[in-house]
Amino acid sequence: MIEIKNVSKQFKEKTKKNNIILADDNINLKVPNGSIVGVLGPNGAGKTTLLRIIAGILTPTNGTILYDDVDISSSALKIKNEIAYLSGNTKLYNSITGRELLKMFADIYGVEKEVSEKRIEEIINRLDLSSFIDKRIGVLSTGQTQRINIARCLVHKPKYYILDEATSGLDIISSQVILDFIKEEKKNGASIIYSTHYMEEAENICDYVVLINNGKVISSGTPEEINKQTKQSNLRDAFFTLIGGIKND
Question: If you count Cβ atoms within 10 Å of the first and of the last residue's Cβ in the chain, which end, N or C, has fewer?
């Protein structure tokens, strides 16, 4: 389980007044094993900052991140070796092939060669990469590159997934490959945090969602609970109801 307790993050704005920006404000969240929890909201809501904190990339101003009751601040290296972190804009090395990238990440995580070779072949089959795994990353499409990106997260058999806008800008086939993979990892018992601004996508795969706007949680629960709370039939309209905006027909 991943548990986020009272997490806030402040940044100092680079102005003459040095204004303080509160990117995330007292966020609480639990991600049980074998579940997908969606962190939803528009661009600039604080989703990416929150996920970077959960992954140990950023340090929170306040609050605690626990992985199976262990504070990441006291056991960062061990916990990070069990995390798969993916953002929608992660840059890869254009001059190497996908297979070479996977081998490099296996080495980084200390996976033994015999184990990594078998693992890489399993990943290639699982994500249907065979037609482009030996092409240089620089010539791949956006969807193919993102599937390689997903693949490099798998070589060390992570227990926790932190996925930030994993399908943003992808075609329908690449998106579905990634969503099917996420559902399969849930069945395997992984704890998955899935951030997106595609409300319909989240409604399809998430067991529980947290709606964030301007760094604050404005609602949380199952998609059905939030729809019932707002008297709406979908999360998109529920979100607009919660922020007092215009309903999207």
Answer: C
- What local confidence, expressed as pLDDT, does residue 168 receive? 80
* Interval 152-204: pLDDT, tens: 988 999 999 999 988 887 888 888 888 998 999 999 999 999 998 888 889 99
* Buried-state track 7-36, b at ≥16 Cβ within 10 A, e below 16: bbbeeeeeeeeeeeeebbbebebebeeebb
Q: Which residues contact 83 (CB under 8 A, 6 or more apart)?
A: 55, 56, 158, 159, 160, 161, 162
The pair of structure tokens assigned to 228 is 């019932």
Three-class HEC string of the chain: CEEEEEEEEEEECCCCCCCEEEEEEEEEEEECCCEEEEEECCCCCCHHHHHHHHCCCCCCCEEEEEECCEECCCCHHHHHCCEEEEECCCCCCCCCEHHHHHHHHHHHCCCCHHHHHHHHHHHHHHCCCCCCCCCEHHHCCHHHHHHHHHHHCCCCCCCEEEEECCCCCCCHHHHHHHHHHHHHHHHCCCEEEEEECCHHHHHHHCCEEEEEECCEEEEEECHHHHHHHHCCCCHHHHHHHHCCCCCCC
Distance of alpha carbon 227 from alpha carbon 86, whole angstroms: 29
